Every structure is written in C-alpha cells, then in structure tokens.
Amino acid sequence: MIILDVWLGPNSELDGIELLKKLIIINPIIPVIIISGHGTVDMAVNAIKNGAYDFIEKPFNSEKIIILSKRAIESAKLANENKLLKKIAHPNTPLIGNSSFIINLQKDLDRFSKSKSRILITGSRGSGKKLIAQIIHKNLFGSENLVKIIDFKNLSDSELTELLEDNQEKISNKNIFINSNNGTLVFDNIDSLPIFFQKKILLYLENKNFFNKSNIKWNIKIIAISSKNIDYE
C-alpha cells in the first residue's frame, strides 16, 4: 500500500497525481491513498478517477488512516484473489474431471447460475467455496464484471456501518450493494456477522423500493459463504 502526498516538494518534476498515474500503470492492484493539505473536491475526484483508493485531507487523525489503510489492503488482497480466480475459472468451462460427482456438480452450478435465488455455500476451509462462487458469477455475468468478496470475519462495527449504510442521505459508493451492482456480492464468513448487521442486510434484500428511491436498478447475485454448518449453529 502507498500513502502519497499531492505535493512532493519543490525539486520534484511530478506531483502526486502524475506519479499516481505511473504507479497504477506499473501495478493497478496496489492501493494508493492520496493525501493533501490543500485538498479540494475536484482534486479528490481527480485522484479517485486516476486510480487512487481514497483521498484524505490533512490533518487527519491516526485512527482514520489506520482504518482506511486496513480496508485498502483488504481490498487489494481481494482484487488479487479475483485476478487469480479469473485464471482458474472460465465461464462455461467444465470443472476438471469426468466423475459422476464432477458432472453433477457442473450441472448444479449451471442451474444455480440461472436461478435468481440467493445461494449459501458451506464447507470446510480450503474446500473451494470461493472458486465455486466465482464460477457461478462468471456463468451469470461473464468476465466483464468482477465478483465482490466481503470477508466479515475481521471487520469492525464502524467499518460494517459504513459498508451497510442505509441512510439515503449519507449513502455513498462505499455501500457494498451499490458498489457491487451488476455483479456478484459474496459474503464470506457470514456466520461472523453480528445479528444487528444481518438484519440490515435482510432489510436491503427485502426492501424492493430502496434502490428505486436511489434511482438504481437492482441487479446483484448474492452468495453467502461459511466454513461452519449454519444449520447446527
């Protein structure tokens, strides 16, 4: 992760935004947080437009930069994971093997991809749950739209509140539903999500008018993942 100031000093041939453009070309996945002591709305928009993860105006408190850095690193981790999964799971490509289990699994995945129902995938760690979710996503949306994976295991209440903001006057592109529209939203470790926030997600899923008020057409495939047998929890 890189924290980059817009002002790089009088001897620098580049400013932070110009350097940002070069960094994104070298590695588009690495998260870059732009900071400035004289930030404007236009500067912030320009930074995000050119690939910055976020923009912070100085001075800022240490807690804010720590939370943002943690979130940026997690986002980069998921982006890299998506990149690796794209090389493994190609849409409409059968799983390796010709056993009856693999054949039946492929049929189930094709059926799940066509269904509008929400999906719960359970299994022990390392059993390929995310890979299955990726295949379902690619069968449904193709390779253009990335799957968004949210791991609830290590998120704080403040982070969850921001991701699940339901006040339409405060809602932003950081809301996971808006940020994942026209794609697949995967809830990893759904069993780790506190009941209060589970209810907020349920409100989104049941409130058909919410996105209508925001002039957003709902088009999200919801997949939840758990390493536990939720039926026995």
TrEMBL record:
<keyword id="KW-0597">Phosphoprotein</keyword>
<dbReference type="InterPro" id="IPR011006">
    <property type="entry name" value="CheY-like_superfamily"/>
</dbReference>
<dbReference type="Pfam" id="PF00072">
    <property type="entry name" value="Response_reg"/>
</dbReference>
<feature type="domain" description="Response regulatory">
    <location>
        <begin position="1"/>
        <end position="73"/>
    </location>
</feature>
<dbReference type="GO" id="GO:0006355">
    <property type="term" value="P:regulation of DNA-templated transcription"/>
</dbReference>
<dbReference type="InterPro" id="IPR002078">
    <property type="entry name" value="Sigma_54_int"/>
</dbReference>
<dbReference type="GO" id="GO:0000160">
    <property type="term" value="P:phosphorelay signal transduction system"/>
</dbReference>
<feature type="domain" description="Sigma-54 factor interaction">
    <location>
        <begin position="95"/>
        <end position="233"/>
    </location>
</feature>
<keyword id="KW-0547">Nucleotide-binding</keyword>
<dbReference type="InterPro" id="IPR027417">
    <property type="entry name" value="P-loop_NTPase"/>
</dbReference>
<dbReference type="InterPro" id="IPR001789">
    <property type="entry name" value="Sig_transdc_resp-reg_receiver"/>
</dbReference>
<dbReference type="Pfam" id="PF14532">
    <property type="entry name" value="Sigma54_activ_2"/>
</dbReference>
<dbReference type="GO" id="GO:0005524">
    <property type="term" value="F:ATP binding"/>
</dbReference>
<keyword id="KW-0067">ATP-binding</keyword>
<protein>
    <recommendedName>
        <fullName>Response regulatory domain-containing protein</fullName>
    </recommendedName>
</protein>
